[in-house]
Hints:
By secondary structure, the chain is of the alpha/beta class.
Amino acid sequence: xxxxxxxxxxxxxxxxxxxxxxxxxxxxxxxxxxxxxxxxxxxxxxxxxxxxxxxxxxxxxxxxxxxxxxxxxxxxxxxxxxxxxxxxxxxxxxxxxxxxxxxxxxxxxxxxxxxxxxxxxxxxxxxxxxxxxxxxxxxxxxxxxxxxxxxxxxxxxxxxxxxxxxxxxxxxxxxxxxxxxxxxxxxxxxxxxxxxxxxxxxxxxxxxxxxxxxxxxxxxxxxxxxxxxxxxxxxxxxxxxxxxxxxxxxxxxxxxxxxxxxxxxxxxxxxxxxxxx
Length: 277
């Protein structure tokens, strides 16, 4: 008789679709008919360990498949919970985690240290402050440069570039500002593109000053100051590859993708709603 782990492995292979039923059966020393039987049971009621006490309530097949689909797109467990809720489906993140764990779709990590508490910091209005920086995209062997509105997480502009220079980030800033308006302030780290370490005139700083935009710098050794942009880099690295181009991903991120920190509204909705006239 197969162990629970082997049954779960069979279901994972069926979900992945990379092995045929015959190949799965041969790998476990069972008949092809038994593989199909397990798959049929899973489709109807899922594969669970026998438990003491009240049995666990099973999720309908359509909801299980929706959860699996969202997971394959790179969404985290709490985001899946929020996306389902938008569609009128209430499933706790604990149930989602249990389902994905059974299917081998959760990476088991060593116990993490408790996260230090921090004060959430953001501007009250859109276009009060834009953050900027560069992120190296190893998959494409280039830089990603972007600007992000601190209040709404809206990304006015972002592009792949070959060189992380002051000229490139200024050009990108002007593209975003001409389309969505100039922010009151901008924020960056003290990289050479934004800051002069030798006391010389900084072209980036002078450009912002000439546009009437106040430029401020992130605190030294305080990565959370530009944390929203860092989070956007992570979203890009996880979800960008579901789209044919960066432009299509940015459209999705700004106009369609519900943001957990925005109470599952889109960045554009908040950007327009809270723009100070």
